[in-house]
């Protein structure tokens, strides 16, 4: 009897343990997954066409793909931090993410300017090829690592316009003493030919141009320039965007915040940034022509090409600026060497593909 009773007790114990294990497994499977709520600060007015909509679209993609596990609230410039403080806000963890232009951070790392645009450099298609398949992204992440940041491509506006001017530009002398809002390496080139580059966020452009605080401004192109009403503040609209042939934007992510996410949410961020990077270029391609026609036909804007001798002078000045920047900063030189090697290679093919096609198409 004692043996039978012991066997019964042991059997009951195993049954209880089995039930307990089953309960534990089920409760683990049924437990809700952790959710995350992030802030994303930007350098743009809230919901501004193109630039401002891109981070909103990104947040929507992430929430849908994660089934609500990662929710990201987007803030426009000035809502949490000013537009020029996005880099620091994400670096120090005030916000988990940012969306801006990397050339705003030249005071932090000179080579950051390359990841937005180089005057007379690569267009959007070429830049994305270098970034994702030519070693550019690895260099970018190496550059930002000391700042506790992980960069991702965040959109591209395509070739921009040269900008809005209050006076005609007939020769390079007309740029001397000209106060113009133009950031990054384009600003350095303007300075080289005697102009005065001024740093302003998008929200400051109209009043600064209208009041005479600046004589000219570049922004993006017809789509965004029409939205800001820049045609009401300057008479002359020049093309093309020698300074930003394919202006790339960036998403930055706080390293600790990113590493705290499970791998599937990290993957969702990566995929969503790639999607938005292409989506922005698609949007500008679709919207710029309609806006250009509205500026010309409805508002009577005087659109002109910059004179050939002005373009030549700016191109020559660009060569000088890039050499000076490379000589002054070894990291800048390293990144630029990679960029230029890729540009030289891709240009050879594009001469017989893209450029040849455009030439043939225009002759039809």
Task: Explain the overall architecture.
With 364 residues, the chain is an alpha/beta fold. Strands 7-6-8-5-9-11 form a six-stranded mixed beta sheet. A five-stranded mixed beta sheet has the order 2-1-3-10-4. The protein has 13 helices and eleven strands.
Proportion of β residues? 5-15%
Instruction: Report the C-alpha radius of gyration, rounded.
Output: 26 Å
The average pLDDT score comes to 92
Number of helices: 13
Q: How would you write the strand order of the largest sheet? A: 7-6-8-5-9-11
> Pairing-aware structural class of the strands and helices?
alpha/beta
Distance between the termini: 104 Å
Low-confidence stretches: 1-28
Biggest sheet statistics: 6 strands, mixed
Total beta strand runs: 11
Task: Offer a concise description of the structure.
The chain has 364 residues and is α/β, with parallel strands linked by helices. The chain has helices spanning 2-30, 53-65, 86-91, 124-133, 136-144, 184-192, 205-211, 222-228, 255-259, 263-298, 308-328, 330-352, 354-362; strands at residues 36-42, 70-75, 97-100, 149-156, 163-165, 179-181, 196-198, 216-217, 236-239, 248-254, 302-305.
How do the helices and strands line up, and which of them pair or pack?
Blueprint: H1 2-30, E1 36-42, H2 53-65, E2 70-75, H3 86-91, E3 97-100, H4 124-133, H5 136-144, E4 149-156, E5 163-165, E6 179-181, H6 184-192, E7 196-198, H7 205-211, E8 216-217, H8 222-228, E9 236-239, E10 248-254, H9 255-259, H10 263-298, E11 302-305, H11 308-328, H12 330-352, H13 354-362
Parallel strand pairs: 1-2, 1-3, 6-7, 6-8, 9-11
Antiparallel strand pairs: 3-10, 4-10, 5-8, 5-9
